[in-house]
């Protein structure tokens, strides 16, 4: 806040909405408890009829102090905490955290473990993208499309459970590699039904006029706004920003694999949907490639925990975008962990696409972003 002299100070001031005047202007506070099984947030709309003049999301109702929980913990064991920052991104959080510690300690992960790490996080990406299309179809009132998307998500989770023992791909990664080996050589064969059904599902969505019509909403995020405000992942790529950590700053075994990074220019809900559809197909292609390249070998590097102080940086391209972990370690224990999550960035730009739109399109616009609140309320 600012004192009377105009100098900055540390006093807390609650967020304020811009003053919107007019006899017909109404205010709607939606949340923090909302319909259905959704995360906790409060949304403030100033609107006339169906037209939204201004929109302000209020998050952070469930601050869990995740970063503070890391302090003082054993660096090797704290992967369990990282897996629980955001449930739908457990594997990517674990990977980014492990890579940050490995960077700090100078650990080289064995090739087989690197490929298996790719398989784990791409399975996570695959089920997240199917969930995305199920939720998007739900908002366009396409009931069969919604049910099919959620069914495909479930099938990927069942495959993950059969392969790893964990539907949400937890308790697999550790500092230095994997906790145990995974027999993923025949994954391509196991994926065949999902590949066929998933392609048919995406094609049906692209041929359903009532679904496509609803995606042609005014919620456009311009490339300049996406760049200036730090949008990331499919949201940024739908607005013309060609960025992907797997390609631009490779980690795990991505430098050995070939894949495309889908980009669109319009920045609307249709563009965001198109980017996700292509990304889903690329995730399947990466799973097939990685499983085909597996060779026998260790899945964990042997190392001694160094004494003294170290710092490390690790990152991953999650289904929602850039995730970064910065760690500071002293004598094997964490002193500080800083997490930069993708939804934190994308919630920042989302309101820019709501102002000037209408109430009927709001749910579709929000679903097209594929946001998660737990990625912020950490």
Number of E-state strands: 8
**Helicity range:** 40-55%
Order of helices and strands: EEEHHHHHEEHHHHHHEEEHH
Number of continuous helical runs: 13
Distance between the termini: 24 Å
Mean pLDDT: 93
Instruction: Report on the biggest sheet.
Output: 3 strands, antiparallel
Question: What proportion of the residues form beta strands (DSSP E)?
Answer: 5-15%
Backbone CA Rg: 22 Å
- Judged by helices, strands and strand pairing, the structural class is alpha+beta
Low-confidence stretches: none
User: Order of strands in the sheet with the most strands?
Assistant: 1-2-3
Instruction: Describe the global form.
Output: globular
Short description:
This protein is an alpha+beta fold and 378 residues long.
Describe this structure as you would to a colleague.
The protein is an alpha+beta fold and 378 residues long. It has 13 helices and eight strands. The chain has helices at 66-70, 79-82, 90-105, 111-139, 143-164, 187-206, 209-215, 223-228, 233-237, 245-248, 269-292, 342-349, 359-369; strands at residues 26-30, 42-48, 51-58, 173-174, 177-178, 309-318, 321-330, 333-340. The strands form three sheets. The protein has a three-stranded antiparallel beta sheet, with no helix packed on it. A three-stranded antiparallel beta sheet has the order 6-7-8. It starts with 25 loop residues before the first strand and ends in a 9-residue tail after the last helix.
Keywords:
single chain, 378 residues, alpha+beta, 8 strands, globular
